[in-house]
Amino acid sequence: xxxxxxxxxxxxxxxxxxxxxxxxxxxxxxxxxxxxxxxxxxxxxxxxxxxxxxxxxxxxxxxxxxxxxxxxxxxxxxxxxxxxxxxxxxxxxxxxxxxxxxxxxxxxxxxxxxxxxxxxxxxxxxxxxxxxxxxxxxxxxxxxxxxxxxxxxxxxxxxxxxxxxxxxxxxxxxxxxxxxxxxxxxxxxxxxxxxxxxxxxxxxxxxxxxxxxxxxxxxxxxxxxxxxxxxxxxxxxxxxxxxxxxxxxxxxxxxxxxxxxxxxxxxxxxxxxxx
Length: 275
Description:
By secondary structure, the protein is an all-alpha fold. The chain has a domain of 91 residues: Tetratricopeptide repeat domain (Serine Threonine Protein Phosphatase 5, Tetratricopeptide repeat). Helix content is 72%, strand content 0%. It contains 14 helices and no strands. It is globular, with a radius of gyration of 30 Å.
């Protein structure tokens, strides 16, 4: 009957479809995987094979890839897989910065003030950091904020420093969160606010920042900007002491002794005459 498909034809159709699917899978499986020198080099770097990382990053760096130039600069700066050469690192970072790498701008700022290529040049450092900070790079916002706070490379500017550290803290950078807590604590560039100080110390502490853990621990013990909670305070001090914070270790011991004494006092039941 016209329009009807016989069983033989139907079986052939199923076999044909299955064959096409199998061929498609075979072709997909045989497609060559393209090498990615950046990610392959990063994998080599993370396993400690810096020579392999340099070999993988060098061709794209020479071809003008800013990310590769930045990574290669790190190898030269730290002497990994090559002889340490700060000047060559700067050359590579300048090329990477011209290609749009904000991380390279940041490193150029740090290099300008670390003294490895001559006397520290804080004005040049501030210029590099400003370029990266204006592009939203949290590490540069924080570093530039500290320069303004100390009056290095520019006149002291507490308000400008506060704004930059605040931006970096909002960007999730733990050292900036910790230092923003200090600015709120001391009223530097803003009004003193113990509640805000404790809140930013807590944010940094939750990211594992040891000094922030010690600060928030003490604030819980004292009820400074947060409700007093000796157990919570001791917990943060233990974490900070575990990271080697000396002040936290001393405070941890005192808090432990105080809690033990409080527990003994709470458990004490005086003997009443005549019972």
